[in-house]
Every structure is written in C-alpha cells, then in structure tokens.
C-alpha cells in the first residue's frame, strides 16, 4: 500500500475511494495494449465490492518504469461464477473474487 | 544403479549394458538471452556498489527459509487461539508480525477462512503470485497454465483432481491474486483433532491446505491418542 512515496513525485491530493463495500460495480469492457492486471474474463461483468484494500501504485504505469502515480484504489470485487461464465458447471452460489483497480470500475444502475 | 552386480564394474568390459540417462547439469549448454541479461545486470549492480553478492545471497537465504511449515504454525495457532484468529483475518500482516514473521513490503497479505459454507481456493491467472514470504516458493503446478486457467472456470473440476470433492451446498470461492495482495487460506480444523496441541495440529496442515487444493486430514492412527 502507498503510505509515503519517498523521493517519487507527490501523488497529489488523496482521492477518497469512489466505491464502498457492498456497492454494485461493472468492470470496464475496454481493450488494452500492454501490461494490465484486470483479467479479460471479468471485463464487462458486474460484481459487488467486498473490500477496499487501499491505495496502491498503478501497475499499468509501474510496468513501464514509471512511478505508478497517481496511486489507484484497489478493490476486492466478488462476481457470481454464472455471471462470469454463462456455461459454468457448478453451484449457482459459487463465486470468484478479483482484485481490481479503481480506474477499471464503473457504477452500475 | 547398474543392472548387474555379479562382476566388478568398469567401463572397459566391452559388452553393452544399461545405464540410466545421465541427469543434465542445469547450467550445461549455452546461456539463454534472459540468463545473460540477469548476469549482466547483477554484475553491474555489484560493480556499481548498489548491491553486494552477500546481500543477494542473504535475500536468497531468506526466501529459502520460508516453507509451508511456517504457514502451518500460523494456522495451528489460529485454530487454538480465537483472539489470534480474529487478528489474522482482520490484519494478516500485523498478526504474522506478532508470530515473529515479517512478510516484507513487496506485497500485502490477506487471510480467507474456510467455513462449513464456503471453501476458498487461490490462483493467480496472470502470472504466479503466491504468499512466498509465508509458504516459500510455489509448487510447479501452481504456475502451470492448466491450473491457472482451469481454476477460475472450473474450480470444482480442478479440486476434484486434487481429491477434494465438495458437496454442492458448499460454495466454492476462487480468489484470483491479480494485484498487490497475496492470499492465505485458513482451513477448517477437523473435529477429530480435539485436544491436540499446536505442534500436532501443524503436522496435518499441508501447503495445499493453505492454497485451498486440499483439506487437512487426520490419519487413522492419529497422534491424538498420545499425551499432549
């Protein structure tokens, strides 16, 4: 988690998390070139925020030797397996949880 | 082992006989591009005084000192100490520090608890993220494409291949470690371990139990009969 950033550029004013635990969210369905930590299988899928992990440097920038700033809020998002894999073989209650950075999440109606 | 023991063995005896294939030295043959890169980078860092060979060896030693036995001790303590268990679930880093285990600053840790209703299993689909600072280096299968891709789409099928059959009413919850968190599964304590001490408990907590691909098993001749 980013607590202080040492000699790296200031991250600027700390943004409050955009989502809270229990909130329904949808993962952006955008394509991406290069390093990305949002697995394709959850893109466009709807889930629920289970936990707000805190602020972490952005891996999409870190991967290219940048400081990873501004830091991104990281969330634990829970998806129903049936939502992720329509042909899922298992219980309807089965779930998958993925850690997703804030810039990949959108509110759902 | 040679197939014959009826005569003195030397290699000039002029008849064909079977030898097992010689094991290849891991550093035989030409270096690959990444090996060259690693060696060049390492020697430059040492030459410039940014790192020392001693510091690198110490870091490797630290990694090698982490084994599933460490995780087993933590789980056994959580099984016998409700306050510690709450602490572990709430703030894994601090609880581990309380046990003298420093997980460093590379990643955060979280603990997920198996219950009669929920079974947790850990995977890293993007690479092979693993709670190394607690469990040591991951098994080769954890890094395999098959485990990484199949666990998210068919966890019950994968678990069944590990010998774990879960009733349909137990919800399977897969955790994909995509970011800065490493997950530890806190398995359920078997009922048959009543009265066991932490050491006895730790002995049945295997690496796979803490990944979620196994359940702690009590052997038929359980050590429970012994004093402790």
What does it look like?
The complex is a heterodimer of chains A (109) and B (228). By secondary structure, chain A is mainly β. Chain A has a domain at 52-76 and 88-109. Chain A is 7% helix and 31% strand. The longest helix of chain A has 4 residues, at 59-62. Chain A is globular, with a radius of gyration of 15 Å. By secondary structure, chain B is an alpha/beta fold. Chain B has two domains: 33-64, no CATH class; 66-225, Nitrile hydratase alpha /Thiocyanate hydrolase gamma (Nitrile Hydratase, Chain A, Alpha-Beta Complex). Chain B contains ten helices and four strands. In chain B, helix 3 (68-80) crosses helix 4 and helix 7 packs across helix 8. Chain B is globular, with a radius of gyration of 23 Å. In chain B, 30% of the residues are buried. The interface between A and B is medium-sized, with 27 and 23 residues. Strand 4 (95-101) of chain A pairs parallel with strand 3 of chain B, so a sheet runs across the interface.
In short:
The complex is a heterodimer of chains A (109) and B (228). Chain A has 109 residues and is mostly beta strands.
Pick out its properties.
heterodimer; A: 109 residues; five-stranded antiparallel beta sheet; 7% helix; disordered N terminus; B: 228 residues; alpha/beta; Nitrile Hydratase, Chain A; two-stranded parallel sheet
